[in-house]
Amino acid sequence: QELISDISHQVKTPIANLKVINSTLLENEVPVQKQKEFLTAQATQLDKLDFLMQAMIKTSRLETGVISLEKKSQPLYDTLAAALGGILLNAEKKQINVQVDCPENLIVSHDRKWTGEALFNILDNAVKYTPEGGQIRVSVESWEMYVKIDITDTGIGISEQHQGAIFKRFYREDIVHDVDGIGIGLYLAREIVTLQGGYIRVTSEVGKGSTFS
């Protein structure tokens, strides 16, 4: 019931925007150049809707156990490299320096696909909320019973009163509403890590950055 309510709330805005664009094109004589602008805006809203649906499908499958994570002993470096590959282009566009410290021969029992998804979500947020010329550092430490991954950025930071809420589904602070996103990435990351017997925590200071561990 809660999931259905969340979906209903999230799809209202893109659907409303699509209706406005559609009615404008149908009911008015719109110059060709303006038509292109409207169609571009329409494509953007459709992309948002598609992204939302894909995220909700993943969430639903994880929560209901339709997808079972398959942990295998395999190099963590390869999983991390794949996740980094998804954010490097955007990091380069913002001239963000990405540093990685992870032993290539470190073998860890984990589900590669879903762990990669969790890492990507955190890294993607780091790029989104780090100003141009900033820095992201990924460090991996191996302990006797577990492996610790720290993802540290020099971004805008998260105020203390919001740090406990950022892992909730669809939660976003008011100050980041102008940044693309729907507030599902950290929720998914926590679910994925928890299902593998791990946990995520955050330490952050407004204006200085955050570390997700």
Automatic annotation (TrEMBL):
Annotated GO CC locations: plasma membrane
Enzyme Commission identifier(s): 2.7.13.3
UniProt keyword Ligase present: no
GO process terms (BP): cellular response to phosphate starvation
Pfam family, one: HATPase_c
Catalysed reactions, semicolon-separated: ATP + protein L-histidine = ADP + protein N-phospho-L-histidine
Keywords recorded for this protein, A-Z: Kinase, Phosphoprotein, Transferase, Two-component regulatory system
InterPro entries registered for this protein in UniProt: BphY/WalK/GraS-like (IPR050351), HATPase_C_sf (IPR036890), HATPase_dom (IPR003594), His_kinase_dom (IPR005467), HisK_dim/P_dom (IPR003661), HisK_dim/P_sf (IPR036097), Sig_transdc_His_kin-like_C (IPR004358)
Gene Ontology molecular function, alphabetical: phosphoprotein phosphatase activity; phosphorelay sensor kinase activity
Domain Histidine kinase, first and last residues per copy: 6-213
Name of the protein described by the UniProt record: histidine kinase
Taxonomic source organism: human gut metagenome
Organism taxonomic ancestry: unclassified sequences, metagenomes, organismal metagenomes
